[in-house]
Automatic annotation (TrEMBL):
<dbReference type="GO" id="GO:0005737">
    <property type="term" value="C:cytoplasm"/>
</dbReference>
<keyword id="KW-0963">Cytoplasm</keyword>
<feature type="domain" description="C2">
    <location>
        <begin position="1"/>
        <end position="115"/>
    </location>
</feature>
<dbReference type="Pfam" id="PF07002">
    <property type="entry name" value="Copine"/>
</dbReference>
<dbReference type="InterPro" id="IPR010734">
    <property type="entry name" value="Copine_C"/>
</dbReference>
<keyword id="KW-0677">Repeat</keyword>
<comment type="function">
    <text>Calcium-dependent phospholipid-binding protein that plays a role in ERBB2-mediated tumor cell migration in response to growth factor heregulin stimulation.</text>
</comment>
<comment type="subunit">
    <text>Monomer. Interacts with ERBB2 (preferentially with the tyrosine phosphorylated form); this interaction occurs at the cell membrane and is increased in a growth factor heregulin-dependent manner. Interacts with SHC1; this interaction may mediate the binding of CPNE3 with ERBB2. Interacts with RACK1.</text>
</comment>
<dbReference type="GO" id="GO:0005886">
    <property type="term" value="C:plasma membrane"/>
</dbReference>
<comment type="similarity">
    <text>Belongs to the copine family.</text>
</comment>
<dbReference type="GO" id="GO:0046872">
    <property type="term" value="F:metal ion binding"/>
</dbReference>
<dbReference type="GO" id="GO:0005544">
    <property type="term" value="F:calcium-dependent phospholipid binding"/>
</dbReference>
<dbReference type="GO" id="GO:0038128">
    <property type="term" value="P:ERBB2 signaling pathway"/>
</dbReference>
<dbReference type="InterPro" id="IPR035892">
    <property type="entry name" value="C2_domain_sf"/>
</dbReference>
<dbReference type="InterPro" id="IPR045052">
    <property type="entry name" value="Copine"/>
</dbReference>
<dbReference type="GO" id="GO:0005634">
    <property type="term" value="C:nucleus"/>
</dbReference>
<keyword id="KW-0597">Phosphoprotein</keyword>
Length: 510
């Protein structure tokens, strides 16, 4: 019998005394969480943000993981110095790692251990501290914050401010739970709206103190404190756009030195809302029906399918990266699709008989019935379609996104069981209608719809990362913000050798 999930656990990571791999500056660390379920192979679960110029990083991003009391869950935390934009960790300097079980962390609550190198030797004096907290509350605090008249900490320009939110532990220590983006050269910054789980922010106690610190970002890691204040979620909830809640940003050292000191600026909370974020499992158990559609990139940048260098080349064993990606994601999603009939489309190819370029042609060439029977049906249609079309271009995502969005919009008008639409786009990463795609995604964010983009090959995926709203709210070409983040981008190579249901489900539904 399968083990029952006891709870969800949130892991917070900090490091100290990391190796310095950069000349003229400090390492730019990032922490990667790996899990081992098979007893042999590690697969990547998630990554923290990269912190520039720091040998003592405190990572704001948390790792959320299911905790099974009955299982030994092997974890590995790898720390890397990131000096490029590639996803492949082999390009980056390794700063050390630590292996343990989730049970060891949970039983310790906070576990501090030395980092070691691949050969098992100490990674200098580097150490890692991992804190575990059970997540019992799925409420989330949504905040919109700005500031005005902040102190200027720079000689040749204005401050580059950002905020850090801290909660207080039972022993009185402060732990950072969120860090905003940096606003360059601005004493009146407006930060992007952001979300923090209520449990992370204040242990779900709305009257528990929160400390907010405002810093001036410096490229060398020596960030200057502008000022700070303390508040509670109860106080923040009083904010509205017509009547914001405002706090004086106080720098205690400056106040002690200057008798005339008032404050170091005003931080204004324009909006604070507490919402309940339902999980994927909540929707499924609530009777939601999933509708899965596949879109495949047939543009010329993939290379001639007859050449072994092409991403569409069918190897002697009959597979390529496109087919493997279809299986990897499709095998997870098909468990939740009731009829297992999946529409499948191609884009960016010249299609018979007229060989006009199309950006939403059915793989089976039947516009009135584009459905394929199961994942095997999609695979069969792809193999039959490939030799009949001519790879061309440009690479336009917006037509197929709008295509699925029309069905999602129609579903919202029906009074039947709830439906949710998932569009899987498999692409080599070169996109030409970015503005139209941004607008299509923003419009689709209002609908019961999500988009999974799987990038195959080794192209530059910056555009795909941009469409994924993890690093900020995506906006349309006219500036309209997305209502929610509906795009999940996954580089195929991230899980191509780890195609277990668990690893793929985490990657595409994270």
């Amino acid at each position: 019998m399968a083990a029952q999930c006891v709870t969800k656990v949130e892991l917070t990571v900090a490091c100290s005394n990391l190796l310095d791999k950069d000349v003229g500056s400090k390492s730019d660390p990032l922490c990667v969480l790996f899990q081992n379920t098979s007893g042999q192979q590690w697969y990547e679960v998630d990554r923290t943000e990269r912190i520039k110029n720091s040998l003592n990083p405190k990572f704001a991003k948390k790792f959320l993981i299911d905790y099974y009391f009955e299982l030994v869950q092997k974890l590995k935390f790898g720390v890397y110095d990131i000096d490029n934009k590639t996803f492949d960790l082999s390009d980056d300097d390794f700063l050390g790692e630590f292996e343990c079980t989730l049970g060891q962390i949970v039983s310790s609550k906070t576990l501090t251990k030395p980092l070691v190198l691949k050969n098992g030797r100490p990674a200098g004096r580097g150490s890692i501290m991992i804190t575990a907290e059970e997540v019992k509350d799925n409420r989330v605090v949504v905040l919109e914050v700005e500031a005005r008249k902040l102190d200027n900490k720079d000689f040749f320009g204005k401050s580059d401010p950002y905020l850090e939110f801290h909660k207080q532990t039972g022993d009185g220590n402060w732990v950072m739970v969120h860090r905003t983006e940096v606003i360059k050269n601005n004493l009146n910054p407006v930060w992007r709206p952001f979300k923090i789980s209520l449990n992370s922010l204040c242990y779900s106690d709305m009257d528990k103190l929160i400390k907010v610190e405002c810093y001036d970002y410096d490229g060398d890691g020596s960030h200057d404190l502008i000022g700070s204040f303390q508040t509670t979620v109860s106080k923040l909830k009083e904010a509205s756009r017509s009547s914001p809640v405002e706090f004086e940003c106080i720098n205690e050292k400056k106040r002690q030195k200057k008798k005339s000191y008032k404050n170091s600026g005003i931080v204004s909370v324009k909006h604070c809302e507490i919402i309940v974020e339902c999980t994927f499992l909540d929707y499924i158990m609530g009777g939601c029906q999933l509708n899965f559609t596949v879109g495949i990139d047939f543009t010329g940048s993939n290379g001639d399918p007859r050449s072994p260098d092409s991403l569409h080349y069918l190897s002697p064993n009959g597979v390529n990266e496109y087919l493997t990606a279809i299986w990897s994601v499709g095998m997870v999603i098909q468990d939740y699709d009731t009829d297992k009939m999946f529409p499948a489309f191609g884009f960016g190819a010249q299609v018979p008989p007229s060989f006009q370029v199309s950006h939403e042609f059915p793989l089976n060439f039947n516009p009135s019935n584009p459905f394929c029977n199961g994942i095997q049906g999609i695979v069969d249609a792809y193999r039959a379609c490939l030799p009949q079309v001519k790879l061309y271009g440009p690479t336009n995502f917006s037509p197929i996104i709008n295509h699925v969005a029309r069905f999602a919009a129609a579903a919202t008008q029906q009074q039947t069981a709830s439906q949710y639409f998932i569009l899987l786009i498999i692409t080599d990463g070169v996109i030409t209608d970015l503005d139209q795609t941004r607008t299509a995604i923003v419009n689709a964010s209002k609908l019961p719809m999500s988009i999974i983009i799987v990038g195959v090959g080794g192209a530059d995926f910056d555009a795909m990362e941009f469409l994924d709203g993890d690093n900020g709210v995506l906006r349309s070409s006219s500036g309209e913000p997305a209502v929610r983040d509906i795009v999940q981008f996954v580089p195929f190579r991230k899980f191509q050798n780890n195609r277990t249901k668990e690893s793929v489900r985490h990657d595409v539904f994270a």
